[in-house]
Here is the input.
Amino acid sequence: MAAPRGAQLLIDNLEDSLIRGKARWVADLNEFFRGYRIKDTEFDLYARGRTRNRGFFLSRFFAWTALPDYSVSLFCAYESSGAHLTVEKLRRRMEAVSHTIREDELKWAWLIVLSNRELSPEVVSFVSRYDRNELGLGVASTKSQQMVFSNNQIGRSIGKHLSLRKLLGGLDLGEND
Here is the structure.
């Protein structure tokens, strides 16, 4: 099921931000897919790229001499069902992403899940305690604009380098999503 118009606008803005290089400091995401399926799990946005960027001559030289060249990905999904986002739903998405990490030999991936409902204390606790290094989690409520990120460097970078808070704060998504 496609995300509602307000959530789709948020995903469009996130994709546009990534295309314009917002996350380039962390990774150069250069391939973008909509409606990406992994087994029975669909993601509204899937982006992949590498940690070595393709900037100007000096930054490219620095990247080739000092930075590792890892394959990385970003997954974004909108939980549009009438029910709340649960830890079980989140784990299913995490399993699909982990499958891709193994299959595509990715160094790490971001998973951003948006919900039009309030985030439950169980989801907040689960995400904030998650600390495995290969997957960074970010969960946000489009209703309350509450966000929580996993307790690892990749998870914290979702808020810091992707400016998810700024993207979410600029939209009025309300309860009718």
Q: What stands out?
A: The radius of gyration is 16 Å. The beta strands are 28-38, 41-50, 71-79, 108-115, 135-141, 147-149.
